[in-house]
Every structure is written in C-alpha cells, then in structure tokens.
User: Fold these one by one.
Assistant:
Number 1:
Amino acid sequence: MVVCESEKVLYRAAISNGRHEISVDTTEEQGGGASAMRPHELLEAALASCLNMTIRIYADKNSIPLTRVITKVSVDRTQPGKTTFNYSFSFEGTLAEEQREELNKIAGQCAVRETLSKTISFVRTDVG
C-alpha cells in the first residue's frame, strides 16, 4: 500500500510505501512549486521502470550481453476518452538483431503494462 500525505508547501505531497519516500508536486501554472515529479509523470515512471527491469531481468537470465537499456515513456491524453502510453528503448551491448527483437518482445510482459492494459475501476474503501 502507498500512502500520500500533504506537506506544508502548497500542493506538494510525500508518498511512502513504508520503506521509501518520494515527493510529488504540480506545475507552477497549477499553483505548485514544480519541485518534484507530477502525478502523471509517476505513471510514466512506473511503466518506464517496469519495462526497463523486465528487459534487464530477461537479458540476465538468458545470457544476453545487454550492458544498458534506456526506456522512455510519455503519456498522451489529448484525445477525449483515450490515453496512450508511447514508449521506446535504446539498448547497449553487443547484441544480435534477433536479441534486440527478443528484448522488445519480452517488454510486453511487463507487469505494469499488463495492469494498465486491463479494464480499470476505482473503489473508495473507507471514509475519513
């Protein structure tokens, strides 16, 4: 479970999972201080990090000589009723073309991507 608690600085908040903490903020245009990632950037970060780790774990388990992967993700919310996550990879290492294709394919098994691809619902579980 993740808990988010407002801070004294306008619109800034601290997020904790009980072991680690990060901060979030909104843009100056929205009245925030732009001092931390915005909530939509956290969605992008969740997908980017999961894709990155999925690729690296697979490469390690299959002795693929991947030395570095850079994952880029952006969310497009410009179309009414539709959200599109655009992503790309940059691989480093002495990789054959078939290994690059294999890594691109395995990224589709990223748990966050699978979660975001399902029907999503929201349930308020307590009042307070």
Note: Residues 112 and 118 are 10 Å apart (CA to CA).
Number 2:
Amino acid sequence: MKERPILFSGAMVRAILEGRKTQTRRVINSNAFHFPTQGSVFPGARWEFEVRENGLAYTHIDNPNWWHFDSAKKFCDAGDRLWVRETHFRYGKWVKSGLSPTGRQNWRFKATTDEVLYFDNSPDNVRPNEYRKEGWYKRPSIFLPRWASRILLEASEVRVELVQEITRDDARAEGVSNRWSWSPDRNPELFARGLLNPYIANFSVLWDSLYRERGYGWVVNPWVWVVEFEQCG
C-alpha cells in the first residue's frame, strides 16, 4: 500500500464530505494515450486494458495476439491511500525571498502558527496577498502539508476508459448534481453533443473546466484513470 496526495476543488471536497463523490477521473499521462478515439491509433482498432504493476497492457479486442504495452505511470493502485489537498487558510505573513532574474522582489508565505482552517470554518478577516503583513491568508490546495490534511481516501478500484464512456451512475458518483443550470440558448454546444442526461452533461462541464485549456476537453475524449474510493475512518 502506498500513500500519495490528490488535489480536489472546493466543490468536490464538499461532495466528498457529504458522501456524494466516490469516483475521480484523471488524464493518463502518456504520449501513447493522447489519441482521441478508440480507432485513431490503428484504423478500426478496439482495445481492452489491463492495469499491471509496471504500466498498462492493451489488447486488440478482435485479435488477442495483437497487444501493446505502455509504461504510463499509474495514478494509483487499489488499496492505496490518497490524502486530499484542498484550499485552506493559514495565519502568517509574506517575507522577502530574493530577486527574480529580472530584478523584481520575490515573496514567499511564512506561516507563524500551525493552525489550519477550511472552507466550512473559514476566518472572518482574510487578507489579500498584497497586504504582506501578518494575518489570515487563503492558500491554494497544492500548499497543504500532509499533516494538515483532514480527508483520507482509499482506492477500491482503478481502471481505464475513455472519458465519454462515463455512465449516468458514474457521473453521479463524480459528485455533480442533476440540476439543469443552463438552457439550449445559453449553452448550445452541450445540447449539440446530445448530452441530455443532466449528470453526464454537468460532469462534462466540470471536466472542461479542468482540462479543456490543457487540450483534453470533453470533445477530445481522452483516456483516463478511473479511481473509485472510500473515505477512511
């Protein structure tokens, strides 16, 4: 069993704490899996995947002897622990940290206490970063230390699929709502996709907010790690 950090947005942290989110999808980090559809590596190819200790084996469905291997780094294994990094608040101040290559002053945040607060218990007086002096500051999730993480997850299943293969039940397990927050007139692109199930449609919006600018939007249909998890404790 290994332990590794995992980042979630504030909305997804809420969904985890409320028991509504039990799955997450992450783009596979490998050049071999940057193709958008099942048939784009070899015309007409359809693939099945097996998650192995040192990477992924993918086999042609119609020809079991035609298989490939890729050492794409696994996101995690079943049984691994995932400690959640989330946006938080720390008490401290900004201190000078040398000069940039262009001669500008660099600053770094220095916490002056070990107290950590979260969105559901946020401090009243949060300072903007430009304030520099001692006070409460909102800190990005990437800076949350392990000892301050309050959510520990255990991966129960890890598999590979195309992001558009998500089912209604899996989209619901991703923590999105089933409320229609837009109409065809406000967002015709989603209706043009044929995403008439609100869970899947809302998940596609969430996905695009995270990955579209990085080149892995919903319409690209990238291969993803699917991680099912349970809260520990």
Note: The first strand starts at residue 3 and ends at 7.
Number 3:
Amino acid sequence: MAAEHGHAIVPVYLGGFWGSVFSYSGGRFFWKIPRRVPYRCRSPSAGRDGQERRAAGPPGDRRAGGAGQQPQRADVPAAGPPVPPRLPPQLLPLEGGRHDRRHLSGGRLLAGGLVLRKLLCRNVLEENEPRVGLLLPPSVGAVLVNAALALDRRVAVNLNYTLSSSVLNDCIRQCGIRRVITSRRVLERFPLKLEAETVFLEDFQPLVRPADKLRAC
C-alpha cells in the first residue's frame, strides 16, 4: 500500500536473531533454551530512503530486482561478525579491566560511581545543573567522578589545572559551570582563583551511609 500511494519503502535488515528464542531455529518458536544470555544481535541495517521505491518500479511491479530484493541488499553491511554493543565513551572504563595502582575493577568502579552519584545529588548538585567542572589529575578519583556524572546524565567538563586562572574562568563562563569538583592538594599545588563554587572530593568520604553502599551493590 505504501508503494501504491507514492511513499518510500525503507527496508530494514535485523541480523543475528537466528538462535534466539524469537527465531525458528530448532523447528520451534519460544519454547527452547537460548544459546546464550543475554542474546547479542547485530545492529540493524537499513537501505537509503527513497532508493528502494525507485528500484521497485511502478505500483504492482513484482519483477525480480524490485523492492522484494532490497532487504537482501540491506543485509550486506551486516554480513560481517557481530559487533558487541559499546557503552558511551564516559562509561567505557566500566566494561572491565583494572585502573590505577589500587586495581579498581569495572565492578568496583560501577559501585563507587553509583555511591558518588548519590552523594553528589544529595549534597551538592541541583537538577538544573547539566554541566559540572572537574579539576583533578589523572587518578582513580577523577575516573570515579566522571563515571558518577555520566551515570547521572550530566556532562563532566574536565579542566586543565596547568592553565592560568583567566583561561580556566573563561572556560567556566562559556560552559555555564556553577561548581567545580577538585581536591585540596590540587589547589595547594596550583593556587588558582576560580569563578565558581569549589567542591572538594575529600569531603565526601565521611558522608557515605551504609544504605548508599547497599543500593550500589
């Protein structure tokens, strides 16, 4: 009906579903054990808008090479090996591995990020505060703060502590930053004058409640 009314037909190919409980592998739907849990499927591949309508010919055309063959063409980009889904760049450290000298695993990083996210929302940040400045050296603490802000759907603006106060304040104004999370040791080493409220990372440790740890587990 879409082709008869002049609308574009966009074929979409969904790859990697064979073997899942929604496929007919094994001669049955649903009533079978999946090969793996969770079942990873390939990203969908779609044809270009309008191209398939021109290839299909006039309404009612059923010749070979028409719109019926377009889904097979759309599966060509997805013919390679399945690409595992990736986290957003801010959360890539949560995929696993170890970080820094403290051997912080991905699971511990996720738990620490959730706890710190709760502390930031409860004690510091407001709802209408999409961007938060960070003035921290490369460390476990900096990774935790970045993860906590990403989990709370905020933008972590990592500032360069080797810049001058005037340049940093210009960045703060352009990004609309109201608070900067930093460390006392950083400001002792770099006596910067920031035009924003400074929040010290060391002050959060006494604020952790047992319930915060339980929720993050």
Note: Residues 106-123 form the longest helix (18 residues).
